[in-house]
Amino acid sequence: MAKLLRCRDVGFDCEAEVRADTDAEILDQVARHAREVHGLEDVSDEVVAKVLSVITTEHATT
Ligand SMILES: [Zn+2]
After folding, report:
1. What would the mean pLDDT of 34-54 be, rounded to a whole number?
2. Centroid of ligand 1 to alpha carbon of 23 (angstroms)
3. Ligand 1 mean position to 24 CA, how many Å?
4. pLDDT band at residue 6, thresholds of 50, 70 and 90?
5. What percentage of the chain reaches a pLDDT higher than 90?
6. Dist CA 45 CA 20 (whole Å)
7. Interval between CA 13 and ligand 1 midpoint (Å)
8. Cα separation, 59 vs 20, whole angstroms
């Protein structure tokens, strides 16, 4: 089971998806992605709150 975040859900016009086991890892990857791809230097509290609100849990399909 993994957590999934779609960049689009945060408000970017972007198809990128981030998967990780924890919210902290998601935020870490999102911060890097936002900086490298979207030129966002700082991830504000507002963005963090938005990210946390749109993280979904991916259920294993076995
Ligand atoms: Zn993106």
Report:
1. 93
2. 17
3. 17
4. very high
5. 85
6. 20
7. 7
8. 13
Write down the pLDDT at residue 38: 95
Report pTM: 0.85
Q: Structural domain boundaries of the chain?
A: 2-58
Indicate left, alpha or beta for 39 from its phi (over 0: left) and psi (-120 to 50: alpha).
Answer: left
Q: How far does the centroid of ligand 1 lie from the alpha carbon of residue 56, in Å?
A: 16
How many C-beta atoms lie closer than 10 Å to residue 18's C-beta?
Answer: 21
Residues in the chain: 62
Q: For residue range 24-41, what is the model confidence (pLDDT) as tens digits?
A: 999 999 999 999 999 998
Contact 32, 43 (CB under 8 A): no
CA distance 54 to 56: 6
Output the CA 59–ligand 1 centroid distance in Å.
23
